[in-house]
Specification:
Shape of chain B: globular
Number of helices of chain B: 6
Number of helices of chain A: 9
Structural class of chain A: alpha/beta
Distance between the termini of chain B: 58 Å
Strand content of chain B: 25-35%
Structural class of chain B: alpha/beta
CATH topology of chain B: Rossmann fold
Strand order of the largest sheet of chain A: 7-11-6-1-4-5-12
Shape of chain A: globular
CATH superfamily of the largest domain in chain A: HUPs
Helix content of chain A: 25-40%
Largest interface: A-B, 97 and 85 residues
Number of strands of chain B: 13
Number of domains of chain B: 1
CATH superfamily of chain B: HUPs
Distance between the termini of chain A: 51 Å
CATH architecture of chain B: 3-Layer(aba) Sandwich
Number of strands of chain A: 18
Number of domains of chain A: 2
Order of helices and strands of chain B: EEEHEHEHEHEEEEHEEEH
Strand order of the largest sheet of chain B: 9-8-7-10-6-1-4-5-11
Radius of gyration of chain B: 21 Å
Largest sheet of chain B: 9 strands, mixed
Oligomer: heterodimer
Strand content of chain A: 25-35%
Helix content of chain B: 25-40%
Radius of gyration of chain A: 21 Å
Chain lengths: 327, 251
Amino acid sequence: MAGIMAFAESRDGEVRKVAHEVVTAARKLADALGTEVHAVVLGPAGSAAAAGELGGFGADKVFVGESDAFAHYSAEGFTTVLAAFLKEHGCDAALFPASAQGKDLAPRVAARLGVGYASEATALDVGGGQVVATRPEYAGKLFAKVSFAGKPAVVSLRPNVFTPVESAKAGEVQKLDVSVNAADFGAVVREIRAAAEAKLDVGEAPIVISGGRGLQNPDNFKLLEELAAAFGGRAAVGASRAVVDAGWRPHGDQVGQTGKTVAPTLYFAVGISGAIQHLAGMRTSRFIVAINKDPEAPIFKVADYGIVGDLFQILPRLTEEVRKMLA
Amino acid sequence: MRVKSIVCVKRVPDTEARVRIAADGQSIETAGVKFVLNPYDEFAVEAALKHKEAAGAGDVTVLSVGGGESAETLRTALAMGADAAVLLKSAGPLEGLAVARVIAEEVKGREYDLLLFGMKAIDDDLQAVGPMVAELLGIPAATAVTEFSVEGGKATATREIEGGSEVVELKLPCAITLTKGAYEPRYASLKGIMAAKKKPLEEKPAAGGESGVKVEKLSYPAERSAGRIVGEGPDAVPELLRLLRNEAKVL
């Protein structure tokens, strides 16, 4: 037995989009190694309902571990179940999303098994029958090709990089025995607090609109929020380090070396000059648009398209035109 | 009540540094690069100091795995107010699991309530050593924490998740990795810097750091081909959208 394990993250009984990406990446890797994809979903009773869709992204089998102990995410409980699964199946690789949960969980699983871990991978290849992961370091100033000493190769995948591809496999749902007890957990999630508005995370949004000092004051970020809204729930508002340090925006929205490294399909840098640590955090975006009044700003060197001018005039027009276009 | 913390810190190139690949193709050129205490680790040091001060008793030990130069990084943390430092000297840079094994080996014989880390080091960006050490020691952990309280044998931590936050309760001792939040790092005072020189800094060889991964090759990201200025001012907007739709095909 072997196989590629794809951890399919779920929340509130729904499989998250990053799970589709992870299963898609697992499919490609499994094809290259001539093996199967085992998707694993862990959660409370009822989690199996949404799991069937994973066959559509290339899962040969979907293992669902339901337990009252998993009403909330538990690093310890999930690690116990996944490590046992990986041992039993002798998997070649264990893939996770590089989400808040994936980055909390994957290192624990690797340490439990005593195997190596690569985070935020942007490519997976097979060389000499072995898994090789490509991952950014220094927030994307460099890329490292990483090989693994043992099996499974534990890898988390950067959101938005592995585009989900439909690939009809059986996706046969099987029950996974979960014998963990919440009373044994040293850490327990007590509460999940949603942000004031249900918002997309800059790390996962397909469109990111980031603002910098050029916005002049925190209230003006509403111009970016309006543009994001015009994209109809597909866009998140990001921020440069300068404005986060100034307390205008929360750190969770920061793009750059001391914030999040993002790879959306479309990135707007508005009123951001383009410090090296910011460029590192967004340069793997598929398309970059820069709006800045200074034609010499470094941001224009990495942008595919630029508009030079007063963002306070350009943004309202852009929002209006996007609304019209997508109406 | 007392809060005893061990804070794991790392010496990393400054964020504004241009990072160049060394001749071996597997490491970076360090000559002429400014190194600093990893910014996320500063939050962890600050959190340890705050909780010790709030409890009115306890101590803060800072620990680093690295070369001899890391002593300087530990002195920075001592100058902020940490009480003692330990440098586990390794011959070269170690990867995540190896570092976690070295730290776990050292920490398992020590008494502590909190084992604190920066959420990630801004050099390799692995974001894994904290939870790995916790797993090796068999203690609970919370990662990407913005704020936490310590009371009655447990810690209550708020961690960043997509679109909100999660409140986690942990039995002590526990591991917590910090991101930017409630712990704005203090500046070392002149008095702190002078005092740091006299604080204990123990050096010993790093033990038991077997690697799980190997960096085969480092490379620079593909250069982005020079883009173009679509135009000036709001009148350029329709052309921008046309390009995004017809050329880039992203809308």
